[in-house]
Each structure stands twice: as structure tokens, then as C-alpha cells.
């Protein structure tokens, strides 16, 4: 919640304190300032802010040097939300002798109310003599200040320090709850609040925050109950009252909300939240001009209050003042980016302004994150209808009906205000409602096919020259299982409207369904001839190339899709996965890095980025990215699964298992985690447990290619070669374009002493998929094992021709050619080091080639630099000694070798060579 302006609170304090003091003037004359202070304290202890204010003010009037009176006035101003006045009164109290330990918590709260977070950190410390309970409160306030300056890690440290001082400190637990909410961990935040309530059940701040948590969970009834408790405990809270107005309206409790608005008007006449709450009530009553006036008054009092901007924009939209609505919603989206409702309402404004491309840019990211959001699906359906793409429109509208019937219409993650602003805005334009289409789709949902056909036939008469009724009728026949009738209807529609891209796409999908791929390709290509940048038609071709196993064709179409639609997420994700399957994971990662600026907050994108970083051997970055995904998708089985993969890639076995268990806790049926668990159990040599889990998967997914491949992997690990190859053959039959399965089948044949069979599997695959780099690598390894060196080099050359930045191929070619063609070998080695500067094996190849080419001085210079980077690497130390000997520094070489052998007394790969070289040099 933005920081309230101090001006209304100063007016409130004056209106509360001065008149009350005047009305009690006669009674006050009969008491001393000390008695007034005592009465003020008693009143405050009982929650009587009014009585406390009267008595404290009387005491200060009678004795301006009464420090306790000023302290109480400071506390009263804190309750009123006036941090500036609280700070002034506290200064008077401290000047008059209030001890620092008492003053510090009050000062911290006063500064926080004013947004002076850095002042809290600079001026508030923990006195050594402060008791643990007060010290805990003070450390928690410092934590709040760290949050205010945007440093949650330091905030957590201070909240935890508060709990170390007082293990049950409510303020520390409230702070941790705020951190949990910021990370999207609402259940954990609720747990912290409930723990704190056990210590202080009458703490209004805890009840208020619990209300916010229930709102975040979408539970307005529980939120209302929590705000009611907070109001009962601290009656003068504009925030709690205004939030209760919100949640009451969300439940249709208009009269109860009116009572809260009346209370706000009485207690906080010119508070920004009073104007806002009154505006919400008027909005609910469809009094739009009056509501707009209140929302504008809210913004004048608090320019940073985003909700006021949002409702001003929606109100202007409903009044059909589109330029105003666009400007206000743009300000809202700049202040609070990436909200569902902000994006939807801006999309709706763009549609009404007939700016369909911009509308789609606002709406598609919402669907990527929340595929079942009804309003977004409806709007995208209408955009496609306006574009003449009836089939795509039908798909969106169909999904909207399904999601609406399942009650999945909202995905904001917060209690909806219940004002129906999106539905109201949709209903304001008859062209957007598309009632006829919705009626047909509802009939389909209910399987009332006869009624659906009757409605479509009526639409045909009212919509001559439109392809939409034909597409709807085809959908009815598809649902009935009559593809032949559906095809006939679509062809009739195409005769009526030959340039309807949607009809062509529907015919293509029907052809794909019935395995008529050549026919489907013709339909897609015709559609692209009509609309060269149509994404759906492009992706249709992608699917057809995938079915044909044409990886080059898939890559080409996806590259075109990315060029034509940089705003679309699916093409770069699909292409990055294709590159990984083709053994070119670096190309996939480079593609993702290019798209990161556009999609960096999208969970689907971040999830794929984790996979790509693991595929390219960047486990540290993968772990960091997995942490980002967890923030975007807290309590997510997928996020924990990918975190587990990243932990495993970093060699953190225990952390990997823990993440897998958390993933299964979120979703016990999440298949990728269960498959990863099989691998983890086998890696820990718990083979019976791994086999039991695999058997369960096989029973749930009989004949599934992925499960069969996992069965092959487990058999391969147990050296059961025949069982492994049998499982992989079955898996490849189910998934004939899966490169990984083909490679593992070949390995099973190889290790099972069917080397020629393994070579044939890979050779046949390579002939069908010539761009598959990974297969060329495996083939090269097989040829090397068999001593067929020419074929080995040819395989690496093919890999390099496909991917010029293939570090593995460059390194292997450099090593193999260092004797017979050292100049060419050095070219390869230098390129490999440039691409992988942190790889010791790649560096070692470069040095070996330099020594072979008698470039001893350059080799020595590089090795001396490498020794500083990797001082304990035995390979580098041995190579250094060789280079020192080659340039004539025999004494230095002997010294290096002796240091190497002394510092590594155990076995290492180069020990025998190092000992032999040392003996020769010493003898020399």
C-alpha cells in the first residue's frame, strides 16, 4: 500500500484533539497533569483513543514540560497515522527526559510512517541495556525499513535477529510473513501470522495483515472477518475500513459496504481511502460520473495510489471516453506492470480503438500465464473474428466456454472486488459479446448437438457471406465423431468464402488428424499465401515437418515465425528445444538469451531457460535461474523439479532429492519428477526402489515412449544389454523422431557387443536427420573405438559443418590432427579456447598442439597464466614442466615437477609421465 499523505492526518489530529480538549475543559481543571497522564494511559490501554487524546492534551496544556504527556501524544499520532506529528511530540518528550530505550521504537514507527526508511537504518540501533522483548520489536522495525529500501535479504536477517532475542516476538514473525507474501508463499505467511497471534491475539496489525493474506488467497469472507477483528481492536484505521469495503463489495454486501463508507466519512473526512471507497460504492451502483469524481479526488490526495488510476481508466472506458481510458490505464500499467486486469482492460481499449495488433500484444502474455482466463479468451476470440480468422476465433471462444463452466474465469491471485468491471466493459459493445457463438458453444459443451445445429443454421441466414457458421457446424460434426461431414461442410464454406484462412486451417487440422499430411500441407501453404505472416498456419507447417522427421524444415519455419512474430513465446521455446535435440544446445541457449528481454518474467520461458543452461553445462547459472522460477511459481511441482535438476547438475545430491520430494508434495502425479526420481534412486544404487517406481509409471502409462526409454536407461545402467535394446526399440517405435532414444539404442547395441548394429542404427538415423549434431558426435566416438580414424574425423567435420561453434568437435579435431596437420589443428584449438575459455581440457589441447608445432614460447606464456588460474591442476603443471624443458629452462622444469609430485603424493593421471620426465631431466 503506498505511503499515505501526511496532510489529511494533520487535519484529522487537529479535528480530534482540539475540540475534545475544549469540551472537557471544566472537568480538566479539577485534575493535575500527573492524574491526566494516568487517565490517558488507562484510556489507551482500553483502546479508547478519544479519551486518551483528551487527557494527554490536558496534561500537556497544564504542564508543557510533562515528558510522559508528550510521549502519549506521540503514540496517539502514530495510531492516527501521522508520523510527522508523532516525531515532533517524541522529540519534545526526549528533550524532557524520556529515556532512549523507550523512545527508539516510537521513533522508528514514526519514521516508517513517513517513508524515511534510510533514517531508520541510520538512526535506530539496538541499545545494549534494552530488554529482549523491546529489542525484538526494534529489530523487526529495522527489518521493515530494509524492506522499504528494497533489500529483503537484510530484512530477513533483522527479522531473524528479532526472533533470536525473543523467540515468540510477533513483530519478527509478522516481518517474515511479509517476506513470504512477497515471495508468493501465502500459506507460509499465514502460518507466521497465526504463530504471532498466539502471543498477541489482540494485535490489530496481525489481524489486518491476515486480511490481506486471505485476499491474496481469493477468500473475501475470511478477509472480511480478519478486517473486522482489526477494526474492533483499532477503530480508527482507514486502511482496515477501506479494505473491508472492498471485500464486502466483492461478496455483494452493498449495504454493509455503505456502512463502512459512512464510518470513513465520519472519522476520516478527507482521507484518500475515504474518497476511493466512496468511489467503489458509486461504481458498484453504476453512478459512473460520481464515481469518477471520487477516484480523481483520491489521486489528488495520493498520486501514487494505483487502484485509483485503474478504476478511473475503467470508468472512462465504460463512459466510452477511450483516449482518457487509454492514458489512465497506461499510467496504471506503468506503476503496476504485468497485472492480469491491467493487461485485459488495456487490450479491450485497444480493441475498441480498432488497434487489433496492439490489443493482441496486451492479451497474449496473459494467456501464456493463465490459459483459462475467460475474459482474455473472449477478447482474443473477437480479435480473430475481426481479422476474419473464424477457426482461431472459434478455438478461443470454445476455450472460454469450457473455462467458464469449470469456474476458472479468474487468475489474478487476489480477491476480486466483485464489481464485475471486466464483464461490464465487455457487455458495453454488442460486437464484443458474440452471443450467438457462445450459445452454440454452450450447446456443444452440454452435448446438445441438435440444438447446436439448429442455432448454426439460423446463423447462416443472418450472416450470409461469413465463414463462421460453417466452421461452427464443422465443429459440431467433429464433436459427434463425423469427420467426413465436417470436411464437407468446411469445403462448402471455402467455396462460399475462398479467402478465409480459418477455414483452411480447420481443413488442415482435420487432414492432420486423419494422417493426410500432403493435403494438410497444401491447405497450410494456401493459407500462408493469403496471409504470409499468419502464425497458426506457420505452426501447422512446423507440426507437419516434425511428423516427417524433417528437422531442417522445422527449424526454417520456426525461424520465420520468430522473425514475423517477435512477441510470440511458442516459436523460440520450440526452436530452442529442437536445437537441443539436434545436439546444438548452445544455439538454443543463444536464442533464449536474445528473447530474454521480452519474456524474462514468463514462467514458461524461465523454465526452458533452466533446461537450456543445464544442457549447455552451466549448472551454476541454472541453479540461479531455477530460483527465479520458484519466485514466479511458488508451490509449483515444475519449479521444484527444475530446481532438482539444477542441484543435480551442481553435484548437490541431497539438495536434489529434497527438491524432488517437495515437487511430489505439490503434485504427487507430476510425471517428470517421478521419472527423475527413478534416475536419482538408481544413482544412489537403490535399484529395487527405482524399479518399483518405474513399474508404477509403466502401469499408469502403458506403451508410452518416454517410460519405455526410462526402462531402457535403467536396464543399460544394470548392464542388461538385451533388455535395454528391446526397451529402446519399443520406445523408438512410439517416438520415431526422438534423437536421444536412437542414440541410447545404439549405445545399448554397442555395449552388448553388437557394434555393427549400433553403427547401423546411428548411420540410418543420420541419413534421415543429417542436421543432428549429437548423432555425429556418438558416431565419431564409435569410429574412434574401432580404429576407423578417417571416418571418425569425417563425423566430427560433419558436426562442425552444421554447428561451426561446436566446441567438442573443434577440440577433438585439434587433438587428432596435432601430429599430422599441426597448423590446422591449432586453428581448431584456438577457436575452441575462444568459445570455452574456462575449460581445462580445451586449454590442454591448445597447449599440446603448440608444443607439437614447436611454438614453445607461446605455450609457456599461456601455461604460466593458466597456473595462476588453476594452481592445483596436475595436467597444467605437467604441461608447464614440458614447456619449460622445451625452451631450455631445465632447472625450472625440475622444480615444477618436484613441486607437482610433492603436492600430489597420491595417484593422478600424469604421475607416471611426470616421474619419467623428472628422471630424464635429472640424469641429463
Automatic annotation (TrEMBL):
Residues 1-24 form the signal peptide. InterPro entries: CellSynth/LPSAsmb/PSIAsmb, PEP-CTERM_TPR_PrsT, TPR-like_helical_dom_sf, TPR_rpt. PROSITE patterns: PROKAR_LIPOPROTEIN, TPR. TPR repeats lie at residues 204-237, 773-806. Keywords: Lipoprotein, Repeat, Signal, TPR repeat. PANTHER family: LIPOPOLYSACCHARIDE ASSEMBLY PROTEIN B, TPR REPEAT-CONTAINING PROTEIN PA4667. This is Putative PEP-CTERM system TPR-repeat lipoprotein. It comes from Methylomagnum ishizawai.
